[in-house]
Amino acid sequence: MSEIKRKKVRLRDISISYLLSDSDEAEATIIFIHGFPFNKNTWVPQLQDLPDQVRGIAYDVRGHGNSTTGHGYFNLDVFAKDLLAFIEWLDAGPVVVCGVSMGGYIALRAHEMDPEKFRGLILCDTHSFDDPNEGRIKRFATIESVLKNGKRTFAIGFAKNVLSEKTRTNKKEVVDLIKSSIRRNNERNICATLLALASRTDTTHTLSHIRVPVLLLRGEEDQIVSKEQMNKMEKMIPDVRYLEFPGCGHLPNLENDTRFNGEIRNFFISKIM
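The chain above was modelled as a monomer; its predicted structure follows.
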């Protein structure tokens, strides 16, 4: 197991905080992007279990964790350009990007902008579609709730929505991690990110043009991203594999990290290395 180092780099108008798991044998790089409204620490189980041939990086999206806010006007294009600047700064050639939920939205938009920077995609409990009107209205209502009731109440309700009942009962450490991750963000950045998610563009038209291998993963009990949404993506992507995790909700990388890590290893062995 490689030592995980905490690092920062100044790119564009922000300071990006990230975790690095590296070794002298590394031949490929994977970048992990967390979901909303979490941070890079949700990927520690993956960074601890990568093959020696794979360098692992997990970073905080601007306004989350220890990355700074910058100008404060969030949208998915800003998040995607941050990722592309980070990949370019790493100077490690094309990388594999693994994103869960919002992290998947960012990965797909960044790939649309500059596909040559990608060697593979792992898209977990995410999809390519923009929000329908009812989805936008729900996000606006969440903003009002956060402003009225605060992030503590929001964290409790959000943890219940993203984790399966099995996880909530048997993995209290995961529940605590999710709640603490949310509470580390301020209300302004939570609301700004909700607006960014509500206004994101649809990337579905790009799926048939993806020329790198793609792994689609979903928790079987996910209440946020449906099986139908991910199956639609599966049908459109040329080189793709789709898998579900029984007993998991929206965050299978934490709810069943052993199998999740195994699927990452299999992906690298069969498609990347």
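The CA atoms of residues 125 and 229 lie 10 Å apart.
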